[in-house]
Design a protein that fits this description.
Length: 308
């Protein structure tokens, strides 16, 4: 018995090179999990001179072709020992239907190929990947096309900055690390822990006072980071406490440490954050590597299955 029992792959197109399917099958191989593929079909408008909308017969023909192509692809890729099933859904509202399906199916992890989304596009609509992160109360795993079957290096990004609800943030940080440890253990991967802190410039007359204040604040942030790492047994050479913009630091560390998966928490956008986008959504919109997004509800609901 491994760490996972049921993996759900979301496919919005039939692609024999799908990194999500490749990752799911590799995880199933090492964990014994079952893999269920959900094909999400949306009609494709046929652009004509008359700009006519598709009629029901045309939609049904597209849907039948989608089902047939998906079945053929999965039959060709079906490994002998893995339990692989599939289903297709004709989506009128792909976001809500996918989220409702996932809630009822309750997989250990949802796995999907990532979609690059320009920042401007996110201002005027909610991309499917962002909708899944916000709406799926569990683990949502997004992969770039180049992702390997199993990861070798896993990076978990935690937040030790000062919050009104520090106790809750500490609990969530621990859950993030446990989720990352679970994945690393299953894949025999190296785990790294990162906290990126962004200190505002201190405008005071005496530069020595400014430097002392910044160092004191840095120490205040690093102490809970080190305590967290000590509590959960993260080796010293795998701890990375770095100043800078979180998005920039994460992207730099992905390259420097040859990271295959970044584990991050989902933060619901509020106010100005809705306009600017939170760190996880900005990373997922332009994947530097795979991202495993963790919904805060897992603080109360998620427990990994122990290895035998």
């Amino acid at each position: 018995m491994g760490q996972y029992r049921q993996l759900l792959v979301l496919l919005t197109e039939v692609d024999k090179h799908s990194a999500a399917l490749r990752r799911a099958l590799a995880l199933a191989q090492v964990s014994g999990a079952a893999v269920h593929v959900l094909g999400l079909f949306e009609p494709v408008e046929e652009h004509t001179l008359q700009e006519e909308r598709l009629n029901e017969a045309q939609i049904e023909r597209q849907y039948a072709q989608f089902r047939e192509q998906l079945a053929q692809m999965l039959e060709r890729q079906r490994p002998g020992a893995i339990r692989l099933t599939y289903e297709t859904v004709k989506a009128d509202d792909i976001r809500s239907q996918a989220i409702d399906y996932i809630a009822e199916f309750a997989p250990d992890m949802v796995i999907k190929d990532g979609e690059a989304v320009p920042a401007l596009a996110r201002l005027f609509s909610t991309p499917l990947d962002c909708a899944l992160m916000r709406g799926v109360r569990g683990l949502t795993h997004f992969l770039p096309r180049s992702a390997a079957g199993l990861p070798k290096n896993v990076l978990v990004a935690v937040d030790t900055s000062l919050h009104d609800s520090e106790a809750l943030q500490e609990v969530f940080n621990k859950e993030l690390i446990r989720v990352a440890q679970t994945l690393a253990l299953q894949c025999n991967a190296q785990l790294h822990l990162l906290s990126a802190y962004d200190l505002a410039r201190v405008f005071v007359a005496d530069i020595n006072v400014a430097e002392a204040w910044v160092q004191e604040l840095r120490d205040t942030l690093q102490q809970p980071f080190e305590t967290l790492a000590d509590t959960l047994g993260v080796p010293l050479d795998c701890r990375h406490f770095i100043e800078g913009s979180p998005v920039q630091i994460i992207r730099e560390q992905v390259i420097a440490l040859e990271i295959d998966v970044v584990v991050m928490g989902v933060v619901q956008p509020k106010g100005l954050d809705k306009l600017l986008g939170d760190t996880t959504e900005r990373i997922v919109s332009k994947l530097p590597c795979s991202v495993l997004a963790v919904h805060p509800c897992l603080i109360q609901t998620w427990e990994p299955t122990p290895c035998n």
